[in-house]
Amino acid sequence: MTPSSTARLYIVGVGPGDPELLTLKAARVIASVPVVAFFAKRGKAGRARSIVAGWIKVDTIEVRLEYPFTTEVPVRDPRYALELGKFYECAAAEIARRLDSGCDVALLCEGDPFLYGSSPHVLDRLEGSYSIEVVPGVTGMSGCWARASLPLVHGDDVLTVLPGTLDEDRLVERLCSCDAVVIIKVGRNFPKICSAVTRSGLIGRAIYVERGTMEGERVVPLEQMDAQAAPYFSLILIPGRQRAR
Amino acid sequence: MTPSSTARLYIVGVGPGDPELLTLKAARVIASVPVVAFFAKRGKAGRARSIVAGWIKVDTIEVRLEYPFTTEVPVRDPRYALELGKFYECAAAEIARRLDSGCDVALLCEGDPFLYGSSPHVLDRLEGSYSIEVVPGVTGMSGCWARASLPLVHGDDVLTVLPGTLDEDRLVERLCSCDAVVIIKVGRNFPKICSAVTRSGLIGRAIYVERGTMEGERVVPLEQMDAQAAPYFSLILIPGRQRAR
């Protein structure tokens, strides 16, 4: 396919939360495009948009892409994939409409766009039909290990990023064969993750980071935490076994 | 220990190579400190320094920390650990000397400071004695997958970052149990890595990225590459199995 419009879609990572951890390129793109689009939960401002609020001009058109649900429908419920598929279809169509009218669009993404974000769902639907440029961002995990002052890997350590949505036995299996680990998608999976980390014998090395680089940040050894539900913006860091020296 | 100086060491990630992928915070810090320090190979300008050249003032003091060797001494040679240990000791002492004189120092690091960089060796030696702040950066792998327009992970995919320095059987073992993979430290390990990826049955999904976000960038399916030595600034990306839709 040849691009059907000369306008360009920028898929822009806005970093882990601190507005100063935006890249120069992201700031330039956001300040120059006529349209910014962003995902948001129902009734919320949209985290990616909040991070870059200072770079959006008064005459910028804002396209809010509101998820039909977040955690209300379980992932294994057939409605989940069906409804989210429809939602991404509409989101892509809405962005395409702006591109077709000749407007460049910046789709804002928390962290880095390609590390467990929603933007690949839009990319899949528009790639080949439009000019698309991805602007990488500082990931949430980089933000968290920086704030914890905790280098995760040394030498030949393997780094594994584990979604906390995996079932407990699968988590334990992975944890037992890992050097350094980051556990993401913590939220309501927190009690299960704590149990898996304990069963793997790694609880003494694990650090819990909540709202890394943001207001209300907490960095706490995991074993000091109550195994209750943690907020979505939390990660668990388990450094590798090799020493830096 | 209480900090022995009021000056602060900033350990600053400068991103994957494109100077515009510097964060606003990194730019501010680099432009404001009286001293910048950076690692460099013998006879080279220092890549991290080159990326931020536009932000260093004419009166900034530059501390060049030159590696005694890079690949001339094999990692398993006893001289390797011994000589590098001495080198990091001197580098930390040099930075400490500037901090003791009351000057803030920015230690420049390619990509993100804590993803396989040299800065943890300095951190280990100065932590507790000085005020230290880590400024995370965009990683080389984020830069590469953005340029390849290749989301690595979807849904519950596990992401594994494998150093190409591991031996071939260990690489195969890891590759066979992985969803999405990034292979780093390619360079002279390239023929071994190609063999491991082929043995794992993943060669058809692997993408080779050289000099991602920089001049001379190349994005090529791995199976189209000659299995000869690749430059150090290359990565191999293998996306996960799940589809975005």
- The CATH homologous superfamily of the largest domain in chain A is named Tetrapyrrole methylase, N-terminal domain
CATH class of the largest domain in chain A: Alpha Beta
Radius of gyration of chain A: 19 Å
* Alpha-beta classification of chain A: alpha/beta
Describe the protein in words.
- Two copies of one chain form a homodimer.
- The model of chain A has no long low-confidence stretch (mean pLDDT 92).
- In chain A, the strands form two sheets. A five-stranded parallel β-sheet of chain A has the order 3-2-4-1-5, with helices on both faces.
- In chain A, β8 and β9 form a beta hairpin.
- Chain A folds into two domains: 131 residues, Tetrapyrrole methylase, N-terminal domain (Cobalt-precorrin-4 Transmethylase, domain 1, 3-Layer(aba) Sandwich), CATH 3.40.1010.10; 98 residues, Methyltransferase, Cobalt-precorrin-4 Transmethylase, Domain 2.
- The first copy, chain A, has seven helices and ten strands.
- With 245 residues, chain A is α/β, with parallel strands linked by helices.
- In chain A, α3 crosses α4.
- The radius of gyration of chain A is 19 Å and the shape is globular.
- β6 of chain A pairs antiparallel with β6 of chain B, so a sheet runs across the interface.
